[in-house]
């Protein structure tokens, strides 16, 4: 069972990772731009399915391997912290690949496969979700419910963002501003993750 404080920390970690730019979010924004909000909205089901499968597989592997590799969870968390820091630096230095009207329509299969292979799934499984989520069915359902509750509005936000780009309403929002805002959030999260792992 999650306490209210644990649930809030879990939700915060999920939101920080989900909202940052990445392959899945770029496809959602592209779908919003090309197809409009109403037609792109069902793609969130493919995103949720892809993440649930990938997170479950990663979580199972890490949790069961930890039985004979006791150092593995700590190592993976530190590796995730370093990876997030690397993403933060990369985002700061390069422009976000925002969608353009030249890109073709995004389908359910493309979004599902992209999400299935998204490195964020490993971060969720090894650094964000509690280890109990992969050993207790009740904890698993609770954690996945919190994840789904965060994913749906964030996915909708990215679709809406893409649709707004198509109307020219977000001309003030340059790729550099999106990039650097996400970079600061990721850097802060990387430091926090490393601190909680080592203390």
TrEMBL record:
GO terms for molecular function: amino acid transmembrane transporter activity. It is a multi-pass membrane protein. The keyword Transmembrane helix applies. The keyword Disulfide bond does not apply. InterPro entries: LeuE-type. One of its GO terms (cellular component) is plasma membrane. Its main location: membrane. It is found in: Cell membrane. Pfam families: LysE (PF01810). The chain crosses the membrane at residues 6-28, 40-62, 68-89, 110-129, 141-166, 178-198. Keywords: Cell membrane, Membrane, Transmembrane, Transmembrane helix. This is LysE family protein. It comes from Caballeronia temeraria. GO terms for biological process: cysteine export across plasma membrane.
């Amino acid at each position: 069972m999650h306490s209210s404080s644990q649930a809030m920390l879990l939700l915060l970690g999920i939101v920080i990772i989900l909202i940052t730019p990445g392959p899945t979010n770029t496809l959602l924004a592209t779908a919003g731009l090309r197809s409009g909000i109403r037609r792109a909205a069902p793609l969130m089901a493919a995103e949720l399915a892809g993440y649930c499968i990938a997170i479950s597989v990663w979580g199972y592997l890490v949790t069961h391997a930890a039985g004979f590799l006791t150092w593995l969870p700590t190592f993976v968390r530190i590796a995730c912290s370093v990876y997030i820091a690397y993403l933060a630096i990369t985002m700061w230095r390069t422009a976000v690949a925002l969608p353009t009207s030249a890109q073709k329509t995004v389908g359910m299969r493309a979004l599902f496969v992209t999400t299935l292979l998204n490195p964020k799934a490993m971060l969720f499984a090894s650094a964000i979700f509690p280890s109990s989520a992969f050993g207790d069915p009740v904890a698993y359902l609770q954690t996945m419910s919190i994840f789904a509750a965060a994913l749906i509005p964030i996915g909708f936000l990215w679709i809406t963002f893409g649709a707004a780009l198509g109307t020219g309403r977000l001309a003030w929002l340059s790729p550099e501003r999106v990039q650097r805002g996400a970079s600061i959030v990721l850097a802060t999260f990387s430091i926090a993750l490393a601190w909680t792992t080592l203390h």
